[in-house]
Amino acid sequence: MEEQEIIENLQQGTKTDSAFKALIAEHKVRLYWHIRTIVKTHEDTDDVLQNTFIKVFKNIKNFKGDSKLFSWMFRIATNESITFLNKKAKKMKLSDQELNEHLLDSLESDVYFEGDHIQLELQKAIEKLPKQQKIVFNMRYFQDIPYEEMSEILESSVGALKSNYHHARKKVEKFLKKD
Amino acid sequence: MLNNNTIQENKSGFKVPSGYWDTLEDSTLTHLKSRLVEQKSGFSVPNHYFDDFELQSPSKENTHKTVTLNTWTRWLAAASIAALAVVGALYIDHISPSKNLQFSDLDNDIIEDYLDEHLETPEEFIDYENTSIKTIINQNIISLQNQDIINYLDDKFDEQDYDNDK
Prior knowledge:
The complex is a heterodimer of chains A (179) and B (166).
Chain A: H1 3-12, H2 16-39, H3 42-59, H4 69-91, H5 96-107, H6 117-127, H7 131-142, H8 147-154, H9 158-178
Helix pairs in contact in A: 1-2, 2-3, 2-4, 3-4, 5-6, 6-9, 7-9
Chain B: H1 2-12, H2 20-41, H3 71-94, H4 97-100, H5 108-118, H6 133-138, H7 144-156
């Protein structure tokens, strides 16, 4: 099913199940990894991803096509991830910083993290980056998304994104060398 | 698509449970339908309840025994139930929240948790098509003024050549 057909079916309420499944099949991997880099654990990622798709379903009637569907879903996923972490911090009575440390500490005992020492240190270094640089670094380094595509999703010029990535990489290198 | 998944796993060390991608569409659809019913009915079920749900067939054999009460014991049972109902009604009336529980008595945390759980939060009303990703990422932590400075600095770097960066 083509993207436009999926959108029309969901907006008109026809073939809803198959259209929704097709939408998930098309975007699940990229959205999953985007969310995972923010919330870290698989269980939390699964919750946020499901909530993202549910929000997409509930809001797709308002989608006018002013932006690309994936960009729109990416914004929803980003917002869901950050909101999820804010709620988690509030429930655990932790500051943002403390929650980050808690998430990284729990990675070592996470059955779904099989990274070596360097990969764990890399995650710690990434967490030190400013939010925008963190997202750019994750998209470029882990997901290999081309700058042109990132430019559309993040609404930044290619030059600005390259700059973000360059600064992020320098900071990560500095952090890893220091340790 | 799944190739992207492998690249990501190798680079990050993060893993995904085996078979996760195969069932995601169905589990999300089930989750969605459950949420829609919850919204309409007000009833809710625990998270992932339907994931492991199995129908337990009742045994065909009747394992219960029927005991007939004598007439006087029936009257005694009925009287006891009536007495309990009267006492219960009086007790419920006595502890009725509408009479004793004031809104001001509630702790702020309880009110906030209730709002988080039960009401549509402001993010429900975000116009995702017209809200910039930067606003979402920063969630008001960085003020507009600071964001303008960051945009300015980013734009100044446009001219640099980062072709060697990958």
